[in-house]
Design a protein that fits this description.
Radius of gyration: 17 Å
Helix content: 10-25%
CATH class: Mainly Beta
Oligomer: single chain
Low-confidence stretches: 7-13
Strand order of the largest sheet: 1-2-5-4-3-6-7
Structural class: alpha+beta
Shape: globular
Protein name: DUF7282 domain-containing protein
CATH topology: Immunoglobulin-like
Keywords: Signal
Distance between the termini: 62 Å
Organism: Pseudooceanicola batsensis (strain ATCC BAA-863 / DSM 15984 / KCTC 12145 / HTCC2597) (Oceanicola batsensis)
Pfam families: DUF7282 (PF23951)
Length: 137
């Protein structure tokens, strides 16, 4: 009986944790920052599933452009996520930090997205991108 009560309590705790992670609103938080060290950091990323923090170039039109960096993220809350930049980003350049899924690709744990592709593409709750735009300093 004691084992049953402990197992039941564990199952309830696990279910509550899973439910809490699924009820978190997806988000990206970041601020303008110095990228001269070759990285860009989101202070917080909340994801509904395992996936990627993806760094896109953007401009005043606020449309995602080419990918210039990415970093893996886990389902739930991720703090201080840093992506290594794959090309030069100058001071004043605008960057879009965006949450992408791990879904649709052929390999788990390998970032397969290219602009406009469905593999590891952006998540869109209610049809909206989950992103934050920053400026490189």
């Amino acid at each position: 009986m004691k084992t049953f009560i402990i197992a039941s309590a564990f199952a309830v705790s696990a279910s509550a944790a899973l439910e809490a992670s699924h009820s978190m609103t997806p988000a990206v938080e970041g601020m303008d920052q110095d990228v001269s060290g070759g990285t860009v950091t989101a202070s917080k990323v909340v994801a509904p599933e395992n996936g990627w923090l993806v760094v896109h170039r953007t401009d005043s039109d606020m449309k995602p452009g080419p990918v210039v960096g990415h970093a893996p993220i886990k389902m739930g809350e991720n703090m201080d996520v840093s992506a290594i930049l794959t090309e030069e980003v100058a001071s004043g350049d605008m960057l879009m930090l965006m949450v992408h899924s791990e879904a649709g690709g052929t390999q788990t744990g390998v970032f397969e997205y290219t602009l406009g592709a469905t593999e590891d593409g952006p998540i869109k709750p209610d049809g909206n991108l989950v992103m934050q735009t920053i400026t490189a300093e």
